[in-house]
Amino acid sequence: MLTLQIIETAYRATLEEQDDPVMWITHAMRGAGAELAVLLRGNAVSYAVAGQDCSGLQFGAWKQAQPPRLVADLSSLLAKGVEVLAVEDDLVERGIATASLTEGIQLVARAKLAEVLERFPRIWHW
Predict the structure, then answer these.
(1) Strand ordering across the sheet containing 36-40
(2) Could you point out which of 9, 19, 28, 108 has its C-alpha 20 to 30 Å from the C-alpha of 49?
């Protein structure tokens, strides 16, 4: 059954786990054969920005040795045939230019979200 993963909270657990848990579980489920799509909305639209680099994160003497690689995670999902969408209005509200996005991300206007959601028999909102 096709499932839409809506990711709205950005950088959840990326300091502790080095991965966004929803991105990680989406990869694992896709690897097991699940049919999935991802919709980035709210602050999570920032995941779609190409070229971001979280290395260099440091608190006092502690350095993050395994920083999150969210662009690589998204690109890998796209390569596995997972549809990845981002809410265009949320990008605009955050000043993120569409030219800066990872290739393959599909944009959807907030006003068209109901049409997108109708395509999915199961929706998980994170």
Answers:
(1) 106-108, 83-87, 36-40, 3-7, 122-125
(2) 28
pTM score: 0.89
Taking the C-alpha atoms of residue 5 and residue 19, their distance in angstroms, rounded to an integer, is 16
Task: Give the pair of three-digit tokens for residue 72.
Answer: 């690589």
The fold adopted by the segment(s) 3-125 is Hypothetical Protein Ychn; Chain: A, (3.40.1260)
Condensed to tens digits (0 to 9), the pLDDT of residues 23-66 reads 889 999 999 999 999 999 999 999 999 988 777 777 788 777 77
Helix (H) or strand (E) run with residue 39 in it:
strand 36-40
Nearest to 86 by CA among 42, 36, 23, 41: 41
Closest CA to 23 of 9, 56, 33: 9
| Helix, strand, coil distribution of the chain in percent, nearest 5 | 40, 20, 40
